[in-house]
Structure formats: structure tokens, C-alpha cells
Amino acid sequence: MDTLFRGATLRSFTPGRPHTEQADILVTGSVVAEIAPPGGIAEAPGTRVVEAGGHLIMPGLINGHFHSPVNHLKGSLDSLPLEIFMLYESPGLPGLMPSPRFAYVRTMLAAAEMLKSGVTSVQDDAFFVPFPTPDVVDAVLQAYADSGMRARVALDQSDLPEIGKLPFLADLVPADLRARLAAPPEASAEALLDSYAHLISRWHGASEGRLMAAISCSAPQRVSDRYLGALDDLSKTHDLPFYVHILETRAQRVLGQLQGRSLVRNFAERGALSNRSNVIHAIWVDGDDLDLIAAAGATVAHNPISNLRLGSGVMPFRALRERGIPICLGTDEAIADDSVNMWSVAKMAGLIHNIGDPDYQRWPNAPEVLACLIGGGAHAMRQSGRIGALAPGMQADLIMLDLDTYPFTPLNDLDRQLVYCENGSSVRLTMVAGTIVMRDGMLTTIDERSLREQARALAAEQAGAEQTAREAAPWLPYYRSMYLRAAAADLRMDRTAQADDLRGGPQC
Ligand SMILES: [Zn+2]
Predict the structure, then answer these.
(1) Which residue in 134, 152, 259, 358 has its CB near the most CB atoms, within 10 A?
(2) 290 near 301, Cβ under 8 Å?
(3) 36 CA distance to ligand 1 centroid (A)?
(4) How far is the CA of 105 from the centre of ligand 1 (A)?
């Protein structure tokens, strides 16, 4: 059905168009067909008319980095450093192998939350414990298909044992635990490539192109040369974004130092850093790393809330921008940004860098945060020609916000109020590929009450916090030693906000 939005305030994010304009917008099929001054588009019979006076229409938000498999674990852990956190998050317990139904429901949980707050696209770097099976992969993709959301999905798996992924650990653990750390993962590189063959053949381009595959190696230190090369070939052949977590933590910087090259250089020298790369986090990078990323034309995925939740540090935003490195924004997973709300992420991206540089002229401003959020996300997805702006011929991925709400009252500066004031509560309509998937707070594609009931019932059947804590317990002393040793290593860089002179003072 065609849809005519009448009398909107349009923020199109299209170069050459006004910053904002009063406009009618006609959507035909999945695309924006026409934009004209109010009253400039004749209403054809059968067209659905949406009165958009007093409302803002803009492109949908893009969650540039996400992991759906822990959607049911929001709020389940205290803040912990990544290396400790992962012991609780994804232990290899047989009880954590999801049923297809559970994988479907948990994927749908965050899809619902994102669509309601105006996120129309997501890049899901989905990991599977202990390994992906076709029915579970299908369940994740089917959830995105049914939700109406636009999604790229990768399989984030490792083909190497744990022992080489972290510094010092091999020397710290006793022999019996070392044998477990040295055991290879259950799925071989061949098995993982079979899973990719299934993902790409069955789902890439499905739902009229709304669903797409992506490639993931998780991180350079987690994959063999052979598997990394095969993944890069797949990425190249199908022109798919390649997700790679690099230098999220100080311990990862230390690991690279011990190996004689940073993990960015590791990835580049193995031939995998390219303009298809989504370098996730890039916190503990140095100038050489950033030069390599810029020269390759890679995008960096910035996840400022997750980085705070896990105490990882602060990405050097301005240094990236100065080198022209494209940045997209992401929530990371729902266990590390527990709300899956891109408005919060944008606000954090707009604020956290202000404490990293005394020169206020180098702080992010609202338009560049929005550029990362929308255009940066589209670029990361390799979809710049289709989404991330509203113009004739572009996909109709758009949101309509009520301007008669507190975040916009009074309206002083639209971009600043989008970044610093709005929290998703003004979003009245979400459209993906020309289909209205949310209107006035109700999802049109999902029975939300039933979804929440199923999620509660299914989550109750999963391995509980006590079980994962029992599994983590024997490892904790050694991981803590490893973490503290990495924290004390001399790196001649800092990405934290430590107040050294206050340590040891009275506790309050
Ligand atoms: Zn991640």
C-alpha cells in the first residue's frame, strides 16, 4: 500500500536538501517515491494518508553493533571487565544451547524494543554457544523476518582454543585447567564455514532484501589464519561487512604487545583489514593502528555505553574523525548496554568525549553524532545508497516523532534535542521498507504480550545465574590475576579516567 505523509517537518539527511523542510512524502512499495512541498503530491485512490503536521520525519536509527543471543540477560550481571564478564556470559554449558523457539523469542525481544524506539536496522554479530546449528540460525533470521526489521546477521565464532586469546593466562592456571583452556572449540573451521554457506544461501537477500548476511571472525586472536582467510574470501565474494572486535580492552593491547604487534596490525598483516571491515571498539589503539584503519577505509563501531558498563575505556573519537575514519554507533549486547536504546547511545557518544580533551573545540557536536548514528550506520552496513537518508529512490526506513513532547518543548535546536533530549518516547511511527511496523506505541508485526510471556517462561528454563557462577568460580582467581597483571603493564597510553591522587582515601 502506498503511504502519503502530509505536512511533516522533514530532516532528510540528504546532501543538497535543506537541513529541515516542510514536506509531503510519498512512499510507494518499499521506497520513497516523492518529496514535495505541502500539498504538492496528489492523493491517488487507495493511498493511506498519515497526517504528519507537528511531527518530524527522519531516517530510522541504525544499531551498528549488536549481539542478539544474550537479549534475555539484560541487567543480569554487575559491571565487570570484559575478560571476567565473559566467564559468566557464555560458559560452555550444555544447558545454554538454545532451542530454536528460544532463539526466536529472544531475538524478537530486542527487535521489538528497537522498532518501538525507532531503530529500523541492526547489525547482529550473533554468537552461538557452543556452536551454530542450522535450525537455531534459521530461528534468529526468522525472527527478524517476522519483526519487519532490517538486519544483517553474522556468525561470531572462534576456531581456536581459549589459551592463546588472553595474556599471561597459560602461565597462571594449574595443569588441569590449562588442558581445558587448550582444548579446541567444539566446531571446526569447516563446520563453521558450512554454517556460513547455510546462512548465505538461505537468508542473504531474503524478505525482499531486508535480511542480509555479514561475516564475523569475532577477533583476530580468536581465529586461525586458514579460517580468517576463508572468511575474508566470503566477505569479498558477496560484498559483506566483516565484523572484528579489536582492542576493546587494555588486556588486548597487552596481548598484542607480547606478540610483537598490535591486534590491528595483526589483522592488517594477515590481509583482512579492508573497507568492508567493521572494527568494533578500537579503544586501545595508537596512531599507527588508526593510520592502518584509515588507509584501509574501514569503519569503526563505537559502543560507548557498553564500554562504560565493562570499564573498557573511551575510544579516541576525535583522533578517528581527524583521520576521516567512518564511525557507526552501536549498543553492543543487551547484557552490556542493557536497554538496546540508540538514543541513549547517541547521547553518551555526545557526552563521554568531553572529558577526554580540555580543548572544547574538539568535542563532538550534535550533527556529527547524528551523522555517525545514521549515515555512519548505513555506511558500515554497506547500504549507503539504500538507507541512511530520505530521498526519492531510497528505501523507506523512516520514523515519525511527535514534536509536541517535552524533549522538543520549546524547540531550540532540533539536532541537539535529538541527541541530548530525546529518549525514544516521542517516536510515534516506525516504517521499514515501506511497511509500518509500529504506530502509536503498538507493533503491527508482533503480539507483544504473548512475546513477553513466552520470553519469561523460556528464560526460566535456561541455566540460571547460580549455575553460571558455579562454572565461573574455578577460573576467577586466575582471570583476576591475568586482568590485574594486564592493568599494571606499561603501555604508555591510557583510555580510562583514573583519579590516581584520590586512591587510598577514606571510603564513603
Ligand atoms: Zn561486540
Answers:
(1) 152
(2) no
(3) 41
(4) 21
DSSP code string of 179-213: HHHTSPPSS-HHHHHHHHHHHHHHHTTHHHHTEEE
Q: Which pLDDT tens digit goes with each residue over 450-462? A: 999 999 999 888 7
**Rounded to whole angstroms, how far apart are CA atoms 445 and 437?**
6
β-pairing verdict for 211-213 and 61-66 = unpaired
- Rounded Cα distance, 328 and 62, in Å: 8
- List CB contacts of 364: < 8 A, sequence separation 6 or more: 317, 318, 349, 350, 353, 354
Residue 419's Cα: distance from chain center in Å? 18
> Which residues lie at CB < 5 A from ion ligand 1?
332
Q: Which three cell numbers stand for residue 90?
A: 557464555
Span from the CA of 244 to the centroid of ligand 1 (angstroms): 8
Cell numbers at 439, concatenated:
504506530
pLDDT of 362 > 80? The answer is yes
If you measure from the C-alpha of residue 71 to the centroid of ligand 1, how many angstroms do you get, rounded to a whole number? Answer: 13
When pLDDT is averaged across residues 133-155 and rounded to a whole number, the result is 98
Q: Which amino acid is at 482?
A: M
Ligand 1 center to 443 CA (angstroms): 27
Q: Go through the chain and tell me how many residues it has.
A: 508
Ligand 1 centroid to Cα of residue 503, in Å, is 31
What percentage of the chain has pLDDT greater than the value 90?
87
E strand spans, 403-460: 427-432, 435-439, 442-443
Q: Which DSSP letter does residue 373 get?
A: I
Ligand 1 centre distance from Cα of residue 194 (Å):
23
Mean pLDDT of 73-88: 91
The pLDDT value given to residue 487: 96
Q: What is the pLDDT of residue 460?
A: 87
Cα 333 to ligand 1 centre (Å)? 6
| pLDDT on residue 130 | 87
CA–centroid distance, residue 316 to ligand 1 (Å): 18
Q: Which residues, other chains included, contact 317 with Cβ-Cβ below 8 Å and sequence gap of 6+?
A: 302, 327, 349, 353, 356, 364
pLDDT band at 502 (very low <50, low <70, confident <90, very high): low
Backbone angles phi, psi at 208, to 5 degrees: 55, 40
336-351 in b/e burial notation, b at 16+ Cβ within 10 A?
A: bbbbbbbbbbbbbbbe
Give me 221's grid cell.
586472536
- As a whole number, mean pLDDT of residues 295-309 equals 98
Which of 129, 71, 171 is closest to 471 using CA atoms?
129
Q: Is the pLDDT of residue 94 over 70?
A: no
Judge whether residue 508 has pLDDT over 60.
no
Cut 0.90: pTM above it: yes
